[in-house]
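Here is the promised in-class demo. Please do not try to memorize the tokens; focus on the logic of going from shape to residues.
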């Protein structure tokens, strides 16, 4: 991921970087990886995420 700083405006570049990271899901992944997750909890979370993705895709498809 790359963000260019224009006119020495670091604050704006940081804002753009944060938005890009949020769109890519980096913050969500960091939150998940912060602590140990039991395999059963991980499996349940991944199943619910998959179900949510499928429902979202089907809503888009039929709209």
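The designed amino acids, position by position:
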């Amino acid at each position: 991921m790359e963000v260019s700083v224009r006119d020495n405006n670091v604050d704006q570049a940081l804002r753009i970087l944060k938005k890009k990271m949020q769109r890519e899901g980096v913050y969500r992944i960091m939150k998940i990886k912060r602590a140990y997750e039991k395999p059963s909890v991980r499996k349940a979370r991944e199943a619910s995420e998959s179900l949510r993705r499928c429902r979202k895709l089907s809503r888009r498809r039929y709209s």
